[in-house]
Amino acid sequence: MSSTPQKQDRRVRRTQKAIEQAFAELMATKDINSITVSELAEKADIHRATFYSHYSDIPSLYETIQKSVVAGLETIVAPDPERGKNMNGEEVFGMMVDYVYDRKEIFKMLLTRSSTREFFEELAHLFETLYLEIFWSDVTDDITRDDLQVLAKYHVSGCIAVINDWAEKNFADSPERVIQTLAVVDSHFDKLMYRVTKSETSIFDS
């Protein structure tokens, strides 16, 4: 009897997860250019042909992982169409931290390698776009979209720095502590945004 599509999908996901995990572990001690498909297949306990049925080469694997992670984060931080701006920030941070923690090796690879500038840029663009969508309609006439983007960059940089520091310390802090830290960063930004949306003068005025 042949496998059902659902079982086949689960098998594919398990295989891809094993490949990604093995790759992240190899990347902890090696440069991407020195990793071969043979050693990756051996570490993931798969055949070389299985690897090639999912990815064309090692760089394409890295690119796929990076895009998948960004897409996963996007589904978490994108505004809920039903709740809109009334989303609970700490709840969103909790989901985001859990997502990162469940993929510790992957995020450590993406955040702490010297070749991850593109990943940082993708994350920054994702979060900056989110903030512009959320806050632009509420700001006063005295602040420009460019000014708001500066504030978004400021906040995004702080949040990414917290996650990056967590990865660099090998996720030693508990997820709960990281969520609290992100909430503190967010609360300061909320106070700043309150001034922007309620004040009659721009905070950028001297």
Describe the structure.
- The structure is a single chain.
- The chain has helices at 5-27, 37-44, 48-52, 58-77, 89-101, 104-112, 117-135, 145-168, 175-198.
- 18% of the residues are buried.
- The protein contains nine helices and no strands.
- With 206 residues, it is mostly helical.
Element layout with pairings:
Blueprint: H1 5-27, H2 37-44, H3 48-52, H4 58-77, H5 89-101, H6 104-112, H7 117-135, H8 145-168, H9 175-198
Helix pairs in contact: 1-2, 1-6, 4-5, 4-7, 5-9, 7-8, 8-9
Oligomer: single chain
Cα-to-Cα separation, first versus last residue: 75 Å
Write down the overall mean pLDDT: 80
Bulk shape: elongated
Indicate the low-confidence ranges by residue numbers. none
Number of strands: 0
Give the H and E element order: HHHHHHHHH
The radius of gyration over CA amounts to 20 Å
| Strand percent estimate | under 5%
- Percent helix range: over 70%
Specify the number of helices.
9
Q: Which structural class matches the secondary elements?
A: mainly alpha
Please summarize the sheet with the most strands. Answer: none
